[in-house]
Amino acid sequence: MSPTKATSNTTVPTQLLQTNAHSYAYRRFGSGSGLPLLFLQHFTGTLDNWDPAVTDPLASGREVILFDNAGVGRSTGEVPRTVAGMAQHAGAFLEALGIKTCDVLGYSLGGMVALQMVQDRPSIFRRMILVGTGPRGGEDIMHLEKPSLAKRIQDPTNRGYDVLKKIFFTSSHASQAAGEAFIRRLSRRKEDLDPAAGPNVANAQIAAFREWEGFKGERFAELKAIRHPTFVVNGAGDEMIPVSNSYRLSENLANAVLLTYPDAGHGSLFQYPESFTRHAAAFLASNSESAAF
Amino acid sequence: MSPTKATSNTTVPTQLLQTNAHSYAYRRFGSGSGLPLLFLQHFTGTLDNWDPAVTDPLASGREVILFDNAGVGRSTGEVPRTVAGMAQHAGAFLEALGIKTCDVLGYSLGGMVALQMVQDRPSIFRRMILVGTGPRGGEDIMHLEKPSLAKRIQDPTNRGYDVLKKIFFTSSHASQAAGEAFIRRLSRRKEDLDPAAGPNVANAQIAAFREWEGFKGERFAELKAIRHPTFVVNGAGDEMIPVSNSYRLSENLANAVLLTYPDAGHGSLFQYPESFTRHAAAFLASNSESAAF
Fold it and tell me: Among A138, A143, B133, B168, which one is least packed by beta carbons within 10 Å?
């Protein structure tokens, strides 16, 4: 199967990009007149954690590029212990691909990486989609030791993808059913899988969250300088990175539309993939200076 | 001109509906397979304050019904000093029209009236759009005496519709330009105009805001019982009814999608009418039990 033929994260082959210092694992598929859309992944997530119900509809109209940061999946190197370190790797990856400007979908940790990248080099992105994420200096970011989360994460009956159903979705029947469907979609990919992230990945990424919670000077001041059209999305009941962080993003970014979903947690984009991809595609299709779409 | 032919609030004739107790002024136009959409108006607003760029696109696909509450415009009676009193008038109006269930777009004060109506009689609405409004017990609701607002409202150079440009829009060039366009659209209607609201209307409606800010028992508890699909919209920079009130609505209503617009104040729907009506029409077109669209 040729990389350019597959149009789903269920089947697209993983590629390796060699730079001077690293080998980066990625998947690239889809086509259309839009700029490529870079996907930046969540805590401990690999290429296999991207829901085809999110990636595939967006691959109609543009190329999508899924990326394992350093030390994750089949990418080499140490997992950075700061968001800034992850942003450097993602920038080096795009440079090695010859991409000067693209769109980005940053989810959770990936949204923080996107924010750092655009602060470091504004021209790297045209439009940004930030889902379930928060600004530097945000509140209650990924405290997995909280009793409400720890209980679900440490439950031995939740193994593999099952734990995602418990922490990305709410306890309602409808949300858990959506979580089941999400896991079934992830499980469709049977070959060419990334190795699951181990404790070394988790520990370094948690260190990055703790560093990201800190701030110097005026809180959120750096957001006001970012004028890129931005689409901020979250579940109203996100317990991992509470929706208040999305409020602070949309209030302080110069040019951001906020959308929140009901009865949804951290995985709102996977709970409502049809709605999310329809809105995301409309946002990306716009060439307006305004984020409003 | 026949009432059924006109498809714009610029030209549709005003009608009067006689009940036992009152005569209610309204305008009704548009057509399609959707349920009628009732528009409930803002503080001191009359039928003439509905932007045709908002009403007219929504009149394609359904009838829209614009309504003067008691004592406003050409509707008879005393202006109620509570939201509950206004909700009773709106309910009596719908009953006299023979409408048992409809959709609603409640803006500002009108959103509070919609919330009270659906609490009193859940079957009255199928889907609700709540723009620039807030829940009972909300914060900083329509305090026109705040220095930031009072300065603009009392400026003698702001007359008639001009004051709306200053208080519904932000001070940015883009938002003020959108405010100019909004006023030009309102000014297109030259005949069959409502009388502007006087101090008696303003005083009674301000009393209703003050009563609405109070609450008994658990704050926002009444919202959790409302399961209607709801679309909550606000400008991120609303100074009249701050966006935090929309956050509380979307967090506490059982089934609400929230959308906020950047660089926008209280009049976000008039600043981005194309975007707003596109989203509102998609929301209204859905028959899903979920608010997600």
Answer: A143
* CB-based contact A99:A71 (threshold 8 Å): no
Judging contacts by C-beta atoms under 8 Å, the chain A residues touching residue B243 are 247, 251
- pLDDT tens for chain A, residues 1 to 293: 444 567 999 999 999 999 999 999 999 999 999 999 999 999 999 999 999 999 999 999 999 999 999 999 999 999 999 999 999 999 999 999 999 999 999 999 999 999 999 999 999 999 999 999 999 999 999 999 999 899 998 888 878 888 999 999 999 999 999 999 999 999 999 999 999 999 999 999 999 999 999 999 999 999 999 999 999 999 999 999 999 999 999 999 999 999 999 999 999 999 999 999 999 999 999 999 999 99
Run of H or E including A110? helix A109-120
Bridge partner residues of A256 (DSSP): A230
- Determine, for residues B247 and A247 on separate chains, whether the beta-carbon distance falls below 8 Å: yes
How big is the A-B interface in CB pairs under 8 Å?
Answer: 63
User: ∠ at Cα B87 (B86, B92), nearest 5°?
Assistant: 100
Residues of chain B in contact with residue A293, where contact means CB-CB under 8 angstroms, are 275
Chain B residues within 8 Å of chain A (Cβ atoms):
174, 236, 243, 247, 250-251, 253-263, 272, 275, 290-293
Q: Give the closest of A253, A259, A272 to B259, CB-based.
A: A259
CA B106 distance to own-chain centroid:
4
Task: Give whole-number Cα distances, B248 to A197, A236, B82, B144, B232, in Å.
Answer: 37, 10, 21, 21, 10
At position A213, the amino acid (one-letter code) is E
Q: What are the structure tokens assigned to B44, written together?
A: 């001191």
- Residue A85 DSSP label: H
Closest CA to B161 of B189, B125, B131: B189
Which of B232, B233, B290 to mutate to test binding with chain A, by most A CBs within 10 Å of its CB? B290
Chain B residue numbers touching A255 (CB-CB < 8 A): 262-263
Mutant choice from B220, B260, B271 vs A, greatest count of A C-beta within 10 A: B260
C-beta of residue B131 within 8 angstroms of C-beta of residue B106? yes
C-alpha A41/C-alpha A50 separation (Å) is: 8
Residues 6+ apart with CB under 8 A from A86: A69, A70, A80, A109, A113, A116, A208
Nearest-by-Cβ selection for A291 from B258, B262, B292: B262
Token readout for B135 is: 């829940």
Cα gap A116→A126, rounded to integer Å:
14
**ipTM score:** 0.96
Interface of chain A toward chain B, CB-CB under 8 angstroms: 174, 236, 243, 247, 250-251, 253-263, 272, 275, 290-293
Helix (H, G, I), strand (E, B) or coil at B196: coil
